Amino acid sequence: MFPRPIEQASPAMRIGYQMLLPFMLLVWLIPLLAVMWFSVKSGDDFTQGNYWGWSREGLQGFANYWMVFTESDMPRYLWNSVVITVPTMLGAVALSCMTGFALGVYRFKGNLLIFFMFVAGNFVPFQILMVPVRDLTDQMGLYDTRTGLILFHIAFQTGFCTLFMRNFIRALPRELIEAARVEGVSEYRIFWYVVLPLMRPAIAALCVLIFTFVWNDFFWAVVLTQSPESQPVTAGITAFNSQFRAMYHLMSAGSIVAAIPPVAMFFLMQKHFIAGLTLGAVK
Amino acid sequence: MTTVMTDTPIDSKPPRRVVSQQTIAPWLFLLPAFLFFATYVLYPIVQSFYISTFEWNGLYSPQYRGVDGFTDQQCLELGNRAGREPGCELTGDTVWNAEYVGMENYRNLYTDPFFWTSLKNNVIWLVLYFLAIPAGLMISLFLNQKVVGMRLYKSLFFFPFVLSQVVVGLVFSWFMLPGADEGLLNVILGWFGAGPVNILGNADTATYGIIAAGLWPQTAYCMILYLTGLNAVDPEQIEAARLDGAKGPKMLWYVVLPQLWPATFIAIVVTVIGALRSFDLITIMTNGGPGFYNTSVLAFYMYDVALSEFGFRMGYGSAIAVILFLIMMVYIAGFLWKMWRDEKG
């Protein structure tokens, strides 16, 4: 193990390390803690220039959060984000289970080429797609709709998911598939009954990742939507920004609310999330 | 009962080749994803190249038919005004009203100062973003211990990566608020008798302020890559090196880092992509300002040219996108080349 395990160090070092940990964490998260502080202060504090001090009225507690939910478009934006994110997650994972299976199990001409096409497509800058995708979405009558965003996200995320799934399936024991073939099981049934059940960890990892990526997307949200009826929360919060301008207490409460779903997802599914991100980091 | 055709010699024709299930199955499995991907990713890339040779405002114009001595061609040339010209009438169709300009957009980019500012900022991003890699390594070494609550510490250090860039941008723009008592940064500087500074309001420093915000989640990402990598480092090699008297930086450089190469490679890939894709933070924190495009990068400039209130210049925007794409392709090609080598070897 590197660095040398702290248990082997002197007691003074151990205690020093234990104390340094929370301090470093505090420094690391300081911008975020500042926002949490903003989010529970009263609006008057900001108009009077009291950004950091304790005020006579004290803290607001959850009142700011309550206002965000009752007096802004926030609940609608959140709902839009859910409606966009969940189908994208299911669609991209379903499609990539199939591509991963096709590219990971079969040997055929062009296999690697098609695989590389998905990988490369996943890395291109969004701007090279922007004008045509916006135009296509408009032509289909899907501009400023959630469906328009979902369709694009499914297509784009499939690139990353294919990379992931294909490598995962490659690592599965091939004998399972060969054995099934000898038994005369059809290819479709091999996919459904042999491979798919083994893919559960990969499916879980991708679901969390795609959820986070799509929830946090901002670029496509501003390119393909514009009204509160269809905008997800990332784009919504900027509209919120112009509605509440320097009302930092509401804005910061709003941003915290917007951040909660992916954060909750991460803490619930940590193992899968990290397994997904670090794919290929250990070889 | 089937009739047996005795008059046809059995071996006159080769038996019809049965397409085996194994040959068509992969194509059937690939088809739906391929259609999606081709429509939304592959074809648009080609289209962007094509559109970059046009001047186009993103709209379609109605088409007119010539009547009373006007030819269709004349009505076409009259363009949008045609409807008001006598002798032209609406056909009910709409056409793409882009005007072919060849390489004009690219020539204009060459003399466009904002394009060069954006490109320069892209280089700054690319260089400074690499700080995320050593910083991530440092934090991962710091956290690679087995003490009580370490799992929670690791998660909390990783936390910034899970936040949306929009939230990160807002968080940092409040952190850097200019007044002496406003942003926490200035409050802290005040304790040391320094400041206040207006990082985002100053053309010389704003880009660095945004990059600092971007480094926060990116460092967290590199950290998690290295933590996973460190888990897989061979303990026997470390022990052997220890017996030989290696420790500290020497051990890190000669024994640990070579084993962390896969993690470093992924970190480089995601950092380059992250740096070149930077858009959200710039939009949220400065919207390209202060002044004209001082914090702009190609990704931002392209968006602003193509979809701004000053008019939709889709062709010009596409030309910028093509340049960005070509820069990115250098890295993508390198990445694919390595993958290809790994597959073969």
Automatic annotation (TrEMBL), chain A:
It is found in: Cell inner membrane; Cell membrane. Its main location: membrane. Pfam families: BPD_transp_1 (PF00528). The chain crosses the membrane at residues 20-40, 77-105, 112-130, 150-169, 190-215, 246-268. One of its GO terms (biological process) is transmembrane transport. Keywords: Cell inner membrane, Cell membrane, Membrane, Transmembrane, Transmembrane helix, Transport. Part of the ABC transporter complex UgpBAEC involved in sn-glycerol-3-phosphate (G3P) import. Probably responsible for the translocation of the substrate across the membrane. This is sn-glycerol-3-phosphate transport system permease protein UgpE. It comes from Gymnodinialimonas ceratoperidinii. The lineage of its organism: Bacteria, Pseudomonadati, Pseudomonadota, Alphaproteobacteria, Rhodobacterales.
UniProtKB/TrEMBL annotation, chain B:
It is found in: Cell membrane. Keywords: Cell membrane, Membrane, Transmembrane, Transmembrane helix, Transport. One of its GO terms (biological process) is transmembrane transport. It comes from Gymnodinialimonas ceratoperidinii. Belongs to the binding-protein-dependent transport system permease family. It is a multi-pass membrane protein. Residues 118-337 form the ABC transmembrane type-1 domain. One of its GO terms (cellular component) is plasma membrane. It holds the Pfam family BPD_transp_1. InterPro entries: ABC_transporter_permease, MetI-like. This is Sugar ABC transporter permease. The keyword Transmembrane helix applies.
